[in-house]
Amino acid sequence: MFVHATLKRRLFATALIVTCAAPTVTGAGTAMTEFTKNWNGRRVVVKSVLYTVLYDEIGRLGVHYQGKLAGLTVATQAGEYYEFDGPGSDDPVVEPTPNRVFSEMSARYTRAYHTDIGTVKTITPLLLRQFDPGVELIVQSVKVERTRIRFEFRRTDEAEDDGFATSLTVEWPAPLSKSFHERETVEGVVRRFIEPL
Questions:
Q1: I need a labelling partner for 182 at 20 to 30 A (CA). Which of 22, 67, 111, 170 fits?
Q2: How far from the centroid of its chain's Cα atoms is residue 73's Cα?
Q3: Would you list the DSSP string of 21-79?
């Protein structure tokens, strides 16, 4: 009888926790979903320069990928820095200027050939592009991660399928809350770089 009463209490406690937590989880998605819907597809004008690197990559099996693009600009509450996420499990290149990212990309990414007969340069940066203040872009997607929100843009003069032009990543110092109470501050960081039209 005692075991049965304990089991009932545990089931009741579990049901109570699930019932109370459900509105919070549902509500959490709503704030972030509203934020992403508000920005997706929106025309914006650049206020501070956004940087993108054009590069070639050689994959693990020797396949050449030419003309790949990666946005470099990462915004924080305190300022900005520039980052290139390396292929696979390689550490990202993080530097205070886009030119230093470009130089570090040239020096860092090499590995042994799959046949072990030498090394190959896996990343070859070709060109650093910048999108200056006044340039109009369209928000192609907004991706939310644990401590980051990434805005990907395409040019306004390109068809919707033409793809990526640049990006802006907002990095938050702690995990974003489920209720997204950081929204106003995050939008302030975003608006240092782009302004909706």
A1: 22
A2: 10
A3: HHHHHHHHHHHHHHHHHHHTT-EEEESS-EEEEEEEEE-TTS-EEEEEEEE-EEE-SS-
> In this structure, what token pair is assigned to residue 131?
């999108």
- In the structure encoding, which two tokens stand for residue 167, read together? 């990006």
Q: What is the per-residue burial (b if ≥16 Cβ within 10 Å, else e) of 6-40?
A: eeeeeeeeeeeeeeeeeeeeeeeeebbeebeeebe
H helices, E strands: number in the chain = 3, 13
60-86 tens-digit pLDDT: 777 888 999 999 999 999 999 999 997
Angstrom distance (rounded) from CA 95 to CA 117: 32
Structure-token match 């990434």, residue found: 150
Tokens of residue 184, six digits: 């106003």
Query: Distance between CA 51 and CA 99 in Å, rounded?
Result: 10
Angle among Cα 146, 147, 149 to the nearest 5 degrees reads: 95
